[in-house]
Amino acid sequence: MEIKAILGDITKQADVEAIVNAANESLLGGGGVDGAIHRAAGPDLVKECRTLGGCRTGDAKITSSYDLPCKYVIHTVGPIYYGGKSGEEEKLSSCYRRSLEVALEKGIRSVAFSSISTGVYGYPLDKASKTGVDTVFDFVSKHPSSFDLIEWVCFDGLTLKYYEEQINDHGRSALRGL
Ligand code: ADP
Question: Measuring from each residue's beta carbon to the nearest atom of ligand 1, which residues come in under 6 Å?
């Protein structure tokens, strides 16, 4: 399997079965990547989201993708960063874990994450990328042979640099046999 980070627009990813949206608790759309996903998916996405009754911070829910090129959208709600002493790390880690659990339940083998919480929610990129990458490596090591590709689709070069660095820290050899 492969774990990587790329530069791009997550709404254009056609080589993954699911993309992960950095949503808010209402699941009814917002700014940033959430707004871009809803715009690209079309109005039926929010209609399905209305049936879900929102989503707690740290949890994840799945919908169809409508006009997006992938098959599914996994909506997760990252924590707002209040300085790091309000359980942010555990909540962010939970976002990644729950997103992959939901993917696993559906038999989804390829997943593209956005950089959860590092935009409007203010989570420092160094800390968020470490928590995200550590959690994903930990999850795949516990679920060998379950995924073909997990990637971060980064909207800017700085974000890409942080995720790439974290992934390289784990070393590609760690993926052998997964
Ligand atoms: P949050 O509220 O969880 O912080 P944001 O949407 O504000 O979420 O930002 C999360 C990340 O998504 C940021 O790095 C932002 O630059 C990025 N982003 C915004 N639009 C897109 C897009 N179309 N594709 C991929 N990433 C995007």
Answer: 9-11, 22, 32-34, 36, 78, 114-121, 153, 155-156, 159
Mutate to test the pocket of ligand 1, among 114, 131, 161 (most ligand atoms within 8 A of CB): 114
Bridge partner list, 133: none
Q: Does residue 28 sit in helix, strand or coil? A: coil
Atom of ligand 1 nearest to the CA of 32: 6
Q: Which of 102, 60, 67, 95 is nearest to 81 (CA)?
A: 95
CB atoms within 10 A of CB 87: 13
Q: Which two tokens stand for residue 143?
A: 């679920």
pTM score over 0.85: yes
The tens digit of pLDDT for each residue in 6-62 reads: 999 999 999 999 999 999 999 999 999 999 999 999 999 999 999 999 999 999 999
Query: And the tokens for 14?
Result: 């056609």
Beta bridge partners of 149: 2, 110
